[in-house]
Amino acid sequence: MNTEHDSRCDWQRRGRWHPHDRHGGTHHPARGKMFRLFALAAFVLIFLAITGIVSLAWLLASRMGAHGWPAFVAVMVPVALVVLGAARAFWTMRRVASPLGAVMDAAESVAEGDYATRVAERGPPPLRALARSFNTMTERLQHADRQRRDLMADLAHELRTPLSVLQGRIEGLIDGVYPLEPGQLDQLLDQTKILSRLIEDLRTLALSDAGVLTLQREPMDVTDLMKEVVDSFEAEATRLSVSLQLDAPPDPVTVEADAVRIKEVLANLLANALSHTPAGGSVRLALSSAADAVSVSVADTGSGMSADDVARMFDRFYKGRNSRGAGLGLAIARNLVGAHGGHIMATSVLGKGTTVKFTLPAQA
């Protein structure tokens, strides 16, 4: 087990790279050339402005008959005003150019894949707002990149287990270690079913994430659907010595939804509840309706979860203690409920149990 963990961490470390690795050295942004061009253009404009003002002032002084010091003062006063204005403009440009240049440098780093880049929030209010938005963007990119790496590592880990079992069994059959009998073939078939289910779960997640999951919406009675799910798990609950209860109103509760997908959500929640409830415990399904929404809850009397586990339980590939699945079921349930315009949440108390509740929009 430690070997698998170490190899997985090593895989994740190898997945990290620095922007310098792409070009074999430090990247030098070309923003300096742009600022030099701006400075040159500003200098030319200031020079032309001073020349024009001096010429105009001298012309006016000559026409007014001013000579000597009066003419000199008449020329230098507007020149001084222009110089002061230019100095003020230069100071403003520096105050704007410095934080803007920092954002441009940071953008170059992010473009090269360094999502840990942040910029200081300084300068005029608009530039501080720009820096704040940039930092928020890079933080989200860094989080998404970390999730992508974790997803690839978890996916490789989950696929490796059934593939290793299949490879070992087949090699054993070829070498004569295992007898070629139906029991051995049944075990191989079970592993292929695990792989098939994992791939189908990943496909469902991919479609829902992309917003292209097709839902066959039609009016359905949630009460009847819950009864079907409870009946299908009755034998499993009896085997585990867990009491299975259904609390639903006698009248039909109708929503516009994909019955197959909602049944998948209920089955997933019920299977999780049964697997975490000890013998002698109970699992209760409850249905309630309001004017704008229908609520379904699955509550168990199991060991419960910590606040950290509850916060992450709907993350893909996240598995709590004693979990035997791939960690995709609750992520799929969240996406399916969200695709219907609903919401799913969980509450838990250590030692007392967990309740998962989801809502669906009521039929108009």
Secondary structure blueprint with pairings:
Blueprint: H1 2-15, H2 20-23, H3 31-63, H4 69-111, H5 125-175, H6 182-210, E1 218-221, H7 222-239, E2 243-247, E3 254-257, H8 259-275, E4 282-289, E5 293-300, H9 307-312, H10 329-339, E6 343-349, E7 353-361
Parallel strand pairs: 2-4
Antiparallel strand pairs: 1-3, 4-5, 5-7, 6-7
Helix pairs in contact: 1-5, 3-4, 4-5, 5-6, 6-10, 7-8, 8-10
Identify the CATH architecture of the largest domain: 2-Layer Sandwich
CATH H-level homologous superfamily name of the largest domain: Histidine kinase-like ATPase, C-terminal domain
Spatial extent as radius of gyration: 34 Å
Q: Which class do the helix and strand fractions yield? A: alpha+beta
